[in-house]
Write a structure and sequence with these properties.
The chain is α/β, with parallel strands linked by helices. Helix content is 40%, strand content 11%.
Length: 398
C-alpha cells in the first residue's frame, strides 16, 4: 500500500541498468525484479534500452512518490519492517533527477550464468550449477506451495545446454551489446557479474569491445569458484584493464564458507585472496548477509577487515532475510557485533530486529533439509543448537 508520508524515490532507477545477456531481461536497478526485454522496441529505438516504456513508467511513479512493483522484493518490504534496504545503503533517497527519460551512468552486465557454485541464497536465475541441481534432483518442495526460483522448466533445460559461443553469436546477444555500446562513452561504472565472470571465455573480449571513457571504473564481481590454473590466467589478463577493481562475493570462513558458497574450498579461497593481494589489483569484499551467512560473518570480517566498505542484505527469498532468526541467536549475534565498526554493527542489528513470521521459519527449515540432502559433506551442526531447535531441525542432525 502506498504511504504518502514516506518517500518512494530512488535515484538508482534514474542512473543504473542491469542487463542479463543470457536470460534477456533487464532490471531497472540491480535490486529490483526483472523485466523481459521487448526486442521489437529495442530494434525500433536503438540506444533506448534504458528508456523502455516500463522503465520510464516506474521513474514517473517515483517522481510523484508512488510505490512501484519492481522494488517490492528487496527494498519496500525491507523498509516496511525497519531493515536496511539496497536503496538506503546506496543513498538512493537523495533526489538527483526530475525527468523520467535519462541516460545511464552505471551498466550492471550479467555476462552469463555459468557458475560452479550453488550458494545458499542464490538460484537458477544466476547460476547454472543451481539449474543443474534442480533439473537433476527435482524441484524443491515447500508446504506453502512452489517457489519459481526452485522449480525447473523448459527454459532452464535450454540454458543449461547452451554453449557460450552460441550465446555470444546470437542476434539478441549482439543487439544487447550494441545497446551497451551506445551508452558506453557516458558510463561512470561498468559492473560485470554472473554467474561467475571468471568462467566466461569472452570476458575480456566483451569488455574491450565497449567504447568506455578513459575514466570509467570497471568492477568485476567474482566468487572465485574456478580452478586455480584458470584463476591465475584470468587474473593475469584482466589486470591490464584500466580502472579495474574486483568485488569478491563472500562473507564467511572455513565451514560456513563451504556451506553457504557450496562448491568452494576454504583453504583454496584464502590462497586466492592472498594471490590477488600480491597481484596489485584493487579489490574489496561485498558480503551478502542472510540468516544463514550472518553466523560466520564476524570471523570473516576480522580476517579481511582491510578490504571492507559495504554490506548487502538479501531479502529474496524472504525466508533468508537476516531477521528470520530465533531470539537467542539475535541476542548472541548482537553481542558479537559489538566488535564491528559502528556502521556495520548498526546496519546488522537494525536489520535483525523485526520478528520472524512462522511461514518464513517453516520455509527455511524445509529448504535446509533439502539443501543438505542434495550436497555431500555439509553439516548443519555448524549452526547453533538454539537456531536448529527453533527451526525444528535438531532431530535431523547428529
Amino acid at each position: 500500500m502506498n504511504d504518502r508520508t514516506r518517500s518512494y524515490y530512488c535515484s538508482v532507477k534514474f542512473r543504473s541498468l542491469k542487463i542479463d545477456l543470457e536470460s534477456h531481461t533487464t532490471y531497472n536497478c540491480h535490486a529490483s525484479a526483472p523485466h523481459d526485454i521487448d526486442f521489437e522496441f529495442v530494434k525500433a529505438n536503438p540506444g533506448q534500452l534504458f528508456n523502455t516504456p516500463i522503465n520510464v513508467r516506474e521513474r514517473e511513479q517515483m517522481l510523484v512518490n508512488e510505490r512501484n512493483a519492481s522494488c517490492e522484493q528487496n527494498c519496500w518490504t525491507a523498509e516496511d519492517r525497519g531493515a536496511v534496504s539496497a536503496r538506503l545503503m546506496q543513498r538512493g533517497t537523495e533526489r538527483t533527477h526530475v525527468k523520467s527519460v535519462t541516460t545511464p551512468e552505471i551498466i550492471d552486465l550479467t555476462i552469463g550464468g555459468d557458475c560452479n557454485l550453488t550458494c545458499s541464497y542464490c538460484c537458477k536465475e544466476f547460476s547454472n550449477a543451481w539449474r543443474r541441481d534442480i533439473l537433476k534432483n527435482g524441484d524443491y518442495q515447500f508446504s506453502s506451495g512452489q517457489d519459481n526460483r526452485f522449480v525447473g522448466n523448459a527454459k532452464d533445460q535450454f540454458l543449461v545446454q547452451l554453449k557460450q559461443a552460441d550465446l555470444k553469436a546470437s542476434d539478441k546477444y549482439q543487439l544487447l551489446l550494441d545497446e551497451i555500446r551506445h551508452c558506453a562513452p557516458g558510463l561512470k561504472k561498468l559492473i560485470v557479474t554472473g554467474g561467475e565472470p571468471f568462467l566466461d571465455n569472452f570476458l575480456e573480449e566483451v569488455i574491450e569491445s565497449l567504447p568506455l571513457a578513459s575514466d570509467t571504473v570497471i568492477l568485476i564481481y567474482t566468487g572465485l569458484g574456478v580452478a586455480w590454473s584458470r584463476f591465475q590466467k584470468i587474473l593475469d589478463r584482466i589486470k591490464l584493464l584500466p580502472n579495474l577493481k574486483l568485488i569478491v562475493s563472500a562473507e564467511n570462513t572455513d565451514k560456513f564458507l563451504e556451506f553457504n558458497r557450496y562448491g568452494i574450498d576454504w583453504p583454496e579461497f584464502d590462497r586466492k585472496i592472498q594471490y590477488i593481494k600480491h597481484s596489485g589489483i584493487d579489490f574489496t569484499f561485498q558480503p551478502t548477509i542472510t540468516n544463514l551467512t550472518v553466523f560466520g560473518f564476524l570471523d570473516f570480517y576480522k580476517k579481511y577487515s582491510d578490504h571492507f566498505n559495504l554490506l548487502s542484505f538479501a531479502y529474496q527469498p524472504r525466508m533468508m532475510a537476516v531477521n528470520v532468526l530465533d531470539d537467542q541467536s539475535k541476542h548472541n549475534l548482537e553481542q558479537q557485533f559489538s566488535e564491528l565498526p559502528i556502521k556495520f554493527r548498526d546496519e546488522l542489528v537494525r536489520s535483525m530486529k523485526a520478528l520472524a513470521n512462522d511461514g518464513d521459519r517453516q520455509k527455511i527449515s524445509e529448504f535446509l533439509k533439502q539443501y543438505v540432502q542434495r550436497r555431500s559433506n555439509l553439516d548443519l551442526n555448524i549452526y547453533p543448537s538454539n537456531f536448529l531447535q527453533w527451526l525444528k531441525l535438531d532431530h535431523v542432525v547428529q
